[in-house]
C-alpha cells in the first residue's frame, strides 16, 4: 500500500467525519430550537464536536501510516 492509497483513505475518512460532524451540529440545532438544551450547552457541544472531528481527521493519516507499517505492506 503506497502513500497514494493512504492519502485517498484519509481523504475519504475525513469526508465521512465531516458529514458526521455536520449531522451532529444539525441535531444540536434542533435540540436548541426545541429548548431541550440551553444555549451554553449548545455552544459547548458544538465546540467539542467540531474540535474532536478536526483532531481525528488530522491524526488519521498518521494512524493509517503506522497501521500499514505494523502490518508490513510497504
Mind sketching the topology for me?
Layout: H1 3-33, H2 39-71
Written description of the protein model:
With 74 residues, the protein is mostly helical. The protein has one domain (3-71). Helix content is 86%, strand content 0%. It contains 2 helices and no strands. Helix 1 (3-33) packs antiparallel against helix 2. The longest helix has 33 residues, at 39-71. The protein is elongated. The model has no long low-confidence stretch (mean pLDDT 90).
Our count of domains comes out at 1
Strand/helix succession: HH
Query: Percent range for helical residues?
Result: over 70%
Oligomer: single chain
SS summary, helix count: 2
Task: Please report the total strand number as a whole number.
Answer: 0
What are the segments in which pLDDT stays under 50 over at least 5 consecutive residues?
none
Strand content: under 5%
| End-to-end separation | 6 Å
Structural class: mainly alpha
Radius of gyration: 17 Å
How is the biggest beta sheet arranged? Answer: none
Give the averaged pLDDT, no decimals: 90
Which descriptor suits the 3D outline? elongated
In short:
By secondary structure, the protein is mainly α. The protein has one domain (3-71).
What brief labels describe this structure?
74 residues; transmembrane helix; mainly alpha; DUF1146 domain-containing protein
